[in-house]
């Protein structure tokens, strides 16, 4: 039985998650992050604590020289401006042309027609993974502007299951939907990552951070983006669970989450990974 069949059946997820985290620590992939002002600090620290090397390079004049040397690109539209959009498009187009993985975080995709069009234009540049909450994924799948609650989701991840499938099939991307259970699909396979704690939702930019972590995991195994996305979501959730054991509230959870990600060992990962196949 080949590895693709093993992963499709949901077996060996513990080994896969640990192997990917180990590769990130060993290879320290360089991840270019064109991300939002709110998330820059925690995104960079999440990548560093996992063993990756973050680079917050967003000037369009640097893209042609810098993007070719990175191992993966992460684009987050949280504080989107007309000035930053050309750099996002240029970097994504160059990454796609060079065969480098890149990951899109379509923050609040339905909040405005400008934002939705920007996300749809970026999807045309073939992201390896799209990671968003339920409302964002539904908006992209429906390609329509509607009411959204800022960066928060009005839908659960399970509400977005069919939308995620449609978006994955239409875009060719792996689609990951964050929620109480994180859903991951390539349009054919579906798994759920069941790790994490509710208080993580009270820390700004945890979603942005896990998108960056997905980028690092995809960087070290670009031919298995489905497995990399699911593993990164589970690993980040485990770090949240471990951090919650020490936290007194959201602020201390933020600190302990990053520390826990840095300190994860093989036994902890293999004992706590909860990734299951979905019908």
From TrEMBL:
Q: Report the superkingdom from the record.
A: Eukaryota
**Cross-referenced InterPro entries:** Hyethyz_kinase, Ribokinase-like
Q: E.C. number, please?
A: 2.7.1.50
Parts of the chain that traverse the membrane: none
Q: Which GO terms describe its molecular function?
A: ATP binding; hydroxyethylthiazole kinase activity; magnesium ion binding
GO biological processes: thiamine salvage
Which cofactors does it use? Mg(2+)
Q: Which Pfam families does the record cross-reference, listed alphabetically?
A: HK
Q: In which pathway does it act?
A: Cofactor biosynthesis; thiamine diphosphate biosynthesis; 4-methyl-5-(2-phosphoethyl)-thiazole from 5-(2-hydroxyethyl)-4-methylthiazole: step 1/1
- What keywords sit in the KW lines? ATP-binding, Kinase, Magnesium, Metal-binding, Nucleotide-binding, Thiamine biosynthesis, Transferase
Catalytic reaction list: 5-(2-hydroxyethyl)-4-methylthiazole + ATP = 4-methyl-5-(2-phosphooxyethyl)-thiazole + ADP + H(+)
The answer to whether UniProt assigns keyword Ribonucleoprotein to this entry is no
Per the entry, what this protein does is:
Thiazole kinase involved in thiamine salvage pathway.
**HAMAP family from the entry?**
Thz_kinase (MF_00228)
Question: Which family is this sequence assigned to?
Answer: Belongs to the Thz kinase family.
What protein name applies here?
Answer: Hydroxyethylthiazole kinase
Q: What is the lineage of its organism?
A: Eukaryota, Viridiplantae, Streptophyta, Embryophyta, Tracheophyta
């Amino acid at each position: 039985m080949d590895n693709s069949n093993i992963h499709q059946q949901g077996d060996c997820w513990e080994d896969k998650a640990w192997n990917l985290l180990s590769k990130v620590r060993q290879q320290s992939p360089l991840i270019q992050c064109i991300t939002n002002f709110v998330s820059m600090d925690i995104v960079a620290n999440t990548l560093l604590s996992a063993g990756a090397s973050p680079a917050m390079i967003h000037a369009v004049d640097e893209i042609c020289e810098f993007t070719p040397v990175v191992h993966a690109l992460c684009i987050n539209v949280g504080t989107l401006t007309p000035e930053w959009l050309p750099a996002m498009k240029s970097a994504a187009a160059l990454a796609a042309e060079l065969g480098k993985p890149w990951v899109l975080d379509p923050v609040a995709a339905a909040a405005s027609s400008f934002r939705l069009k920007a996300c749809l234009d970026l999807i045309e540049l073939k992201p390896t993974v799209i990671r968003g909450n339920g409302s964002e994924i539904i908006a992209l799948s429906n390609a329509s502007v509607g009411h959204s609650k800022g960066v928060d989701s009005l839908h659960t991840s399970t509400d977005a299951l069919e939308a995620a499938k449609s978006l994955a099939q239409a875009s060719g991307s792996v689609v990951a939907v964050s929620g109480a259970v994180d859903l991951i699909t390539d349009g054919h396979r579906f798994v759920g990552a069941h790790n994490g704690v509710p208080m993580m939702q009270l820390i700004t930019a945890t979603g942005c951070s896990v998108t960056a972590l997905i980028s690092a995991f995809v960087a070290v195994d670009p031919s298995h983006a489905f497995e990399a996305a699911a593993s990164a979501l589970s690993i980040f959730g485990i770090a949240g669970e471990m951090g919650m054991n020490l936290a007194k509230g959201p602020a201390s959870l933020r600190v302990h989450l990053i520390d826990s990600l840095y300190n994860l060992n093989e036994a902890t990962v293999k004992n706590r990974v909860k990734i299951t196949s979905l019908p």
